[in-house]
Amino acid sequence: MTPLSTTPPTLADVAELAGVSRQTVSNAVNNPDLLRSDTLARVQDAIEALGYSPNRAARNLRTRASHLIGMRIGPAQEGTANATMDRFVHSLVETSREAGYHVLLFAGSSEDPIAGYEDLLRSTAVDAFVVTDTYLGNPQAVWLEQRRAPFVAFGRPWDHPDARHPWVDVDGAAGTDLATTHLLDRGHQRIAWIGWRKDSRIGEDRRAGWSRALHARGLPTTGLASRVEDTVASGREASAVLLDEAQPTAFVCASDTLAMGVLHTFRDRGITAGREMSVVGFDDSQVAQVVPFGLTSVRQPLEDVAVEIVKALEGLLAHPPTIATSTLLVPTLALRGSS
Amino acid sequence: MTPLSTTPPTLADVAELAGVSRQTVSNAVNNPDLLRSDTLARVQDAIEALGYSPNRAARNLRTRASHLIGMRIGPAQEGTANATMDRFVHSLVETSREAGYHVLLFAGSSEDPIAGYEDLLRSTAVDAFVVTDTYLGNPQAVWLEQRRAPFVAFGRPWDHPDARHPWVDVDGAAGTDLATTHLLDRGHQRIAWIGWRKDSRIGEDRRAGWSRALHARGLPTTGLASRVEDTVASGREASAVLLDEAQPTAFVCASDTLAMGVLHTFRDRGITAGREMSVVGFDDSQVAQVVPFGLTSVRQPLEDVAVEIVKALEGLLAHPPTIATSTLLVPTLALRGSS
DNA sequence: TTGAAAGCGCTAACAA
DNA sequence: TTGTTAGCGCTTTCAA
Q1: Are A312 and A324 in contact (CB under 8 A)?
Q2: For chain B, which domains are there?
Q3: How many CB atoms lie under 10 A from the CB of residue B2?
Q4: Which residues share a beta bridge with A72?
Q5: pLDDT of A208-252, one tens digit each?
Q6: Which nucleotides of chain D does any protein CB come within 7 A of?
Q7: C-alpha angle with apex A236: A230 to A239, nearest 5 degrees?
Q8: What is the pTM of this model?
Q9: What is the distance in angstroms measured between the alpha-carbon CA of A237 and the sugar C1' of C14?
Q10: Do B81 and A286 touch (CB under 8 A)?
Q11: How far is B220 from chain A (nearest CA, A)?
């Protein structure tokens, strides 16, 4: 029977039981090839019998690595449909595990984007970071780069073309192009855009996909675009104005939140989404999935993003480090009743 | 200028700069009261100058504590409105930080609920766990209790009344009672229930609140209840059947997912939610918040849950440990257009 | 192929 | 009030 509340077994305990030195046990765990097969078997039996697992703190101290990936998590965005993080976090945790890493979460204040990073770095609590909030003009990325801290960003360094850190991102323009082309194929000619304010690089990127798709068919975009805040109310107002002033038959939106605003306007006016009028959102949130008749939405391949990020991380943490090439992934379109 | 890519400063570096011993620096960090104020100031200056932060691994090794709380995270539940985790995780991270802990996430396979826990425990990678998936009949809780591992559960040990671990939970029955009473106050008399299958203890708890509220006013519940799977389609079907067979004027649901199904049926039949017919969901998901006209929903006080959990955790990890009393928190009702 | 010695950076216990 | 000693459990280096 295994002891319960005592301290866990150590290398020395295993060594004694197996009748070998501590070093041999260490080798059995880390470099099994070095041992003669019968010694290895004996040591492994002892490990099994005692339920031994190397003490993380001791190993971390010795190897100067924590096998922990730090990620800052912001508050859940309520009142919106934004739901990227939930899916991404799980994918990241899963993928990290396969690479031998755990994910350490820390809280961030929106005032000081550096807070949290510094302490973890100085205390060598994490080996690297995943930086997700790059839409903020990422001062963290700049700061981390200066500190030579290993990190991978989810999101392009929009305002820093000379940034040299690895990043993984999703091609937003490709997504909205996909959405717009889908609507064009379904016969729509006047397709409106509801996106974010001009200072959002991500918003402008997504907008570019919409206009690109229309121009590719020789269709105009003039008067069909609107830039608002990312709220349901804004999407509702913007779509009402566009309907009155530009007579579109379909909408492509920068977010599911805005698309929900459009659905709201449809309801206000007795319009059935998916018949005379269509709308496509962005992010394939749970909202898009469960709203009556469903909301067609651009889906980011977050599982793939996580895989690429962990790959890049493994490169950075290898000896010698590999400079990972940055990756741009292509989203897909989740088709539902709204289009 | 601070050096960039070199190894971080150690206690010894600070000691040398301040002209004191290493132990004095350690005391300056951990027991500042022990130092004469001028020595303390000198050491603090040195710490500041070098940007010193104690090495976590070394400290962990010495103190036999990691200051890490482990939490298993399951896959995001797509196709449902379930969104408890996002909000809870952030609250937990935030609250833990204030108590000096970080949150370590690990992945779980649904086949083996123990996987992940064992390794972290044996390698002393975390000090304690937060167990959230207690609806599974929580084999983890039983297992952790056997191992004398410190943990706090979010969720009552329904099937183990003799369980002795601390837990924090939200009173589901109080929530549905609140929802039902709200509908009664608005003049509804025939209020239907759409919940989960009978083997869900949480589902039965929530159902109890609904029937309790009706019985308190001397109203019948017969024929007004339905137990289905937690999908939008099930909620849609169940509400259609109930409308035909029991003529309710309002629905209380065990989840926002089911409530979305009810809204779907309302649309199918040209019913406007919030006027002749009402519906209330459970969890105050983003879906409830952004769906046109809004879905009234029971909101779990997840921030408070996190606070109570961290309190209990601090008790467990104190010297000597305190047996935390378990807590049952009361949800609120987020009022929106659907009722 | 295995073992012995040293030390990662820190703090508990004790001594000065 | 400050300093000295020892050792947490592991892996790296080197010797046997």
Answers
A1: yes
A2: 11-54 (1.10.260), 68-170+306-331 (3.40.50.2300), 172-299 (3.40.50.2300)
A3: 10
A4: A106
A5: 999 999 999 999 999 999 999 999 999 999 999 999 999 999 999
A6: 1-5, 7-13
A7: 105
A8: 0.93
A9: 74
A10: yes
A11: 31
